[in-house]
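Q: Structure tokens for this one, please.
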Amino acid sequence: MFTEHIGLKQISGSLIALDGVKDASYEEVVRLRLLDGTTRTGRVIALSGERVVVQVFEGTAGLSLEDTRTLFTARPMELTLAPEMMGRVFSGAGQPRDGLGEIYSSARRDINGSPINPVSREYPRNFIQTGISTIDAMSTLIRGQKLPIFSGAGMRHNEMAAQIVRQARLSSPNGEDEKFAVVFAAMGVKNDVADYFRRSFEASGVLQRVVMFLNLSNDPILERILTPRMALTAAEYLAFDLGMHILVVMTDMTAYAEACREFSSSNGEIPSRRGFPGYLYSDLASLYERAGMIKGKPGSVTQIPILTMPNDDITHPVPDLTGYITEGQIVLDRALDAVGVYPPVSVLPSLSRLMKDGIGEGMTREDHAAVSNQLFAACAKVQDARSLASVIGEDELSETDRQYLAFGKAFEQRFIHQGENENRSLEQTLTLAWELLAMLPKSELDRIDDELIARYYPAAH
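A: Here is the predicted structure, written as tokens:
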């Protein structure tokens, strides 16, 4: 039963307060009707006796204390769901943005989702191929995992996000052609960036298997709080109701966290580190933990959140808390980006904690794990050789150290660097890795079994 109230008690920033409200619920959606007939949407964020505080998504400019009508809908924020969502573009609040009209369906879900029972979770196993060598070989994405990308302002993470959406595909060990789709959420992006994503997906022909949620920089900032929840609600429907395997790409989670900070400040909450609310950890966890697989259901939700680190500071609260919640990270390096290496992945601080259980014989290739370990070890020795060369000069290095320097240069130019449209199969990636490892003496390959060396090392030569 709807309840309508006339007039407001207080207006403060994006918040309004009403007195004398009975039976209101936390997170309840309200509709505000102005004198000119326009409507706005809000949600209940605080209850104190018969006083209710409402967050208005479109802002409070033009609201009247005397004449604004507030309708309490007795429902939480929901998203209309249907298979026809595929190939559509929505706003951050779930409204169609592509001019193709509304989606009509009886299926509606609370965007806050339902927690997955830990007992019902299935351990992630299978590999998702992104076509990017540094991820596929060394920080492998596993189905049901949450693997963030840590970037910096001005770096090419948008191009990387678009490339992953275009190229990502399942790698099924039994060769089955399983249903796969992508849910893409962009928060606080400029119009030209939003157009770039849309044109990129249309030109490559993948838009029909993508559901897009776009919150632009000139949209209400509080709509950004809804955007990832809308995207994850759509992903859960496609995965657990329709049995699809869904990859969710969300950029930029720092813009989302800053929207939370602004909302928290306007609500008068006590700030924590760098002004962010004290509940930021649990808030991010409520999003990231919606990834996973459920026993008895064929679908899965895999997440790649992308966030920019202010001043490239990995100890900033947003990447710091994200690292605690997720199963690894892909870190982008500004020095590589400055010399034109794309994607500028810094392999040593990057890792995937679930990689070991989703690769190897029967899943990827028998030499995958050993090659990955050897590449990490070689990159660490490259760093040591470069540090030593900066002190004593390259001419004073041993022959082995000079070989590592040559390996490091080739590794950056041939393995890390690849074009935006270069989609490498795992077979191509591992073959290239062996060609680079062949630049080192066989005695240095101490992370690979003799049997694998005998099979692949001569072929690389």
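A few notes: The CA atoms of residues 414 and 432 lie 8 Å apart. The mean pLDDT is 91.
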